[in-house]
Amino acid sequence: MKLAVLRGGKSAERDVSLRSGAQVAKALRGRGHDVTEVDLDAGTWDALRDGGFECVFNALHGRLGEDGTVQGMLELLGLPYTGSGVLASALCMDKSRAGKVMAGAGLHVPEFEELEVKEGVAADVVERLVARFGLPVVIKPVREGSTIGLTIAKDEDAVASGLVLAGRYDRRVLVQRFAVGTEITVGVLATPELRVLPTLEIVSENPVYDYDAKYTAGMSHHIIPARIPEAARNAASDAAERAFTELGCSGMARVDIIVANDGTPWVLEVNTVPGLTELSLLPDAARAAGIAFDELCQRLVDHAVGRHHHHVGPTTT
Fold it and tell me: Among this protein's residues, is 43 annotated catalytic?
């Protein structure tokens, strides 16, 4: 097939997306496909419209790639594309609205509040947040990924500076109760049959599983299955499947969860275009389930093409 791999883009996750795209392109070329890597820029519309592509593999992370924007462009161009559609992509990128949907569906989501941060932060706002959520408290931009702009604030000064930091990436800022427990992630595939991948426990060399720990070799370790009781693993897998379904995801997603000591799976967020680099979580979980990386990419392409033909129907001449 003649395929385009979208990577790079303009988000804060550009470098990771370039690496994801390179890995995907290599895997698909290894399967015999004619692959063109396309960086998201002003010429992307023309490149995709005139390129004669049979499918677009979306390896863009963050804004403009994971938030429904590119999905909308591809819908207008009439091109099959991997991953979730416009609505699910936009919803999952918006941690506040996704959290409300998941909580409304009965999933365990740590209590949170959304603020609009334009400039400075008043002292009384900080005091109110600390009184409500306690310390430490999690602060992050509503619409960013890869822990970019995230702070785990342990005192009031850190709360104030964390709000300012998050506000640099998004005027909408999420303040959330800190969930204590084991940090895991659960991959979900739906190509189209839904399959929950093995639970993966994350052990970070840094105090927080941050950007550096995620994308620097040796700074984090993946343990599959997660070292939690079987009942907790089952509960986490069920929560991941429900989150994927309730948010309307398709193709693939990665659900980040904190498993409390009592086994409660606290769902943090759902990533619709998870990292696909050599250090990323979803490919590791897929390998543990017996799905090699090139096969994973092929499944996503096949699903995208099949979904597109199902929606538009057979063409006639």
Answer: no
Cα of 4 vs its chain's centroid, Å: 21
Of 14, 19, 63, 254, the catalytic one is: 254
Residue 122 shares a structural domain with residue 67? no
Angle between the 156-169 and 123-133 helix axes, to the nearest 10 degrees?
Answer: 100
Domain limits at 242?
91-107+180-296
pTM to 2 decimals?
0.93
Task: Report pLDDT digits (tens) over 136-168.
Answer: 999 999 998 868 899 999 999 999 999 999 999
The question of whether 13 is a catalytic residue gets the answer yes
Same domain flag for 124 and 225: no
Contact between residue 266 and residue 257 where contact means Cβ atoms under 8 Å apart: yes
Long-range CB contacts (< 8 A, 24+ apart) of 156-161?
156/126, 156/127, 156/130, 159/126, 159/129, 159/130, 159/135, 160/121, 160/123, 160/126
Catalytic-labelled residue, pool 21, 269, 299, 307? 269
Whether residues 102 and 127 fall in one domain: no
Active site residue 254: yes
